[in-house]
Amino acid sequence: xxWSSILSNTAQGLLSPATMAxxxxxxGLAMHFGFAGLLNFGIAGFMAVGAYGYAISILSxxxxxxQGILVSxxxxxxxxxxxxxxxxxxxxxxxxIVTIAAAEILRLLFLTNAFVDVTGSADGLSGYHNSxxxxxxxxxxxxxxxxxxxxxxxxxVLVLGLITLAxxxxxxxxxxxxxxxxxIKGIREDEDAVRALGKNVFAYKMQAxxxxxxxxxxxxxxxxxxxxxxxxxxxxxxxxxxxxxxxLGGAATVFGPVLGAVIFWVLQAFLSNVLPALVSSGILxxxxxxxxxxxxxxxxxxxxxxxxxxxxxxxxxDKKELTFVK
Amino acid sequence: MSSSSAKLPGKPAAKTTGLHVGTIRxxxxxxxxxxxxxxxxxxxxxxxxxxVEHLEIPRGAITALIGPNGxxxxxxxxxxxGFDKPDTGTWNFAGxxxxxxxxxxxxxxxxxxxxxxxxxxSLLTVLQNMKLGxxxxxxxxxxxxxxxxxxxxxxxxxxxxxMELLARxxxxxxKDDFAASLSGGQRKLLEMARALMTDPVLVMLDEPMAGVNPxxxxxxxxxxxxxxxxxxxxxxxxxxxxxxxxxxxxxxxMAEGRVVAEGPPNEVMKNPAVIDAYLGSxxxxxxxxxxxxxxxxxxxxx
Lengths: 326, 302
Known about the structure:
The complex is a heterodimer of chains A (326) and B (302).
Chain A: H1 3-14, H2 17-35, H3 43-59, H4 65-87, H5 92-111, H6 116-119, H7 130-134, E1 142-145, E2 148-151, H8 152-177, H9 179-189, H10 191-196, H11 201-224, H12 236-249, H13 255-280, H14 289-310
Antiparallel strand pairs in A: 1-2
Chain B: H1 2-6, E1 33-44, E2 47-58, E3 62-66, H2 73-80, E4 88-93, E5 96-97, H3 103-108, E6 111-113, H4 126-133, H5 142-145, H6 152-168, H7 184-196, E7 202-206, H8 214-229, E8 233-237, H9 241-247, E9 250-255, E10 258-263, H10 265-268, H11 272-279, H12 287-291
Parallel strand pairs in B: 3-8, 3-9, 6-7, 7-8
Antiparallel strand pairs in B: 1-2, 1-4, 4-5, 9-10
Helix pairs in contact in B: 4-7
């Protein structure tokens, strides 16, 4: 077994666009679920809005990269409004059902052949990088050390991702320490009680849905920045991977989702390297190396179950602050 | 047990009298009504939960709303506070019509309520629960919230007020505990204290004494009386007749959705219709005597 390549690939999971995309999306979910109590199972939809919004506005409308980001953000606000207006007045479970369905509708719309000119259908979208790469402030060359060696384009994506992540995390931290955050947490506990105290619960829930949605959409953009937009990515299992990252770190925390995303991707990278290696060196019997690399998804599912049962508050969470069974 | 808790030490607060105009009957006009209800009805399927022709709640007094289970008391509460919408009727609060006004705006107008099943915000601390009740905190607006310097001063003001109220309700030592860790009675106190943070004009308490031990009942009674002496109007639903008799200035009796009687407590409780519909003929007799399991010396009427 080639441990050095396994470890090097694992170490790359620590700092990659996918990790940051997950961290951003999980931050959005923390806003939705951890703080406001909104059961959003459509975070993949928000990420798709981000990624497609960015790629389509560049490819179809010839926008600059930063205009593409703005378009994505506006689109995610609209998506949140469409989701929220009919459902936020209803009980929480309905939001869960509607969001999971809406994310699927969105994905199928991007996948259908009817809009192939704009969405690229099953092929997805690529080749929208010129404007973004032209804005790269880093001169050509290699940066970093060891497993964390990046060329100037990768570095530009990472730096932009880190800045976005830092801004979003600080924003969330500020929001949740403010009286606004107090109302949001109150709504999570009992929205009728908060309503009886004269707060416009619907408006607060909508604001929370929009903020979390914007975070998710930013995650989608970061995911799409380095290479391409592929409709196969924004499936329901992406939603559950982001949920895993969120619950792993701690739903009602700001740094938990970030930590959770990092652990998730490091583990993913480790397992996808180590399991096939175990098969090829004969340690893991009965399965082929292709089967071995998909075992990690089973392990994710098992991990999620164990987490919810034994440590629902996550790694960074306060046991008293969030438990599933109320 | 409950009869001893009703005998409060010290001088009882004076009852407010002369609240009505004309002969006492269901729907009698009041000298100074704060809430006026006309033809309000609410049906759940075929069931008429509330059907009130006319009812006025007197300002600056403590009004009790009593009646058998299912009489529509809580539904009427929900209608008044905007948590439910009536099928017909108009209702005013302090001269303003409340038809179509959402619950949060009703609360902003100074009409605050508590719930029959206490709604303490479990995973917020006691102090956070209190602060949530405060009005006019700019920091609760999204745009202002990320700039602490815009709301820090007000926050301190709110905290001082919250601590003062918590001290009054003897919850100040628990301020950093999660509300979930409080006992049932303490949660009732917290809910009432939190309601007071909104500077209400009308306080509506839905069964404030349910499930509270006798000693705590006594302090809750004093708190309710204190609200009146501070100029607030109180409307409460309660099944404990000793409490009703003790603190209410006016009693409204509902049965099957209608107001069947109203009047000062001592007179209402002698009303045969009320005794039939709600109180039963053994209201002052020990339960043991009623069931015949225990023989007690007959008590005179209080």
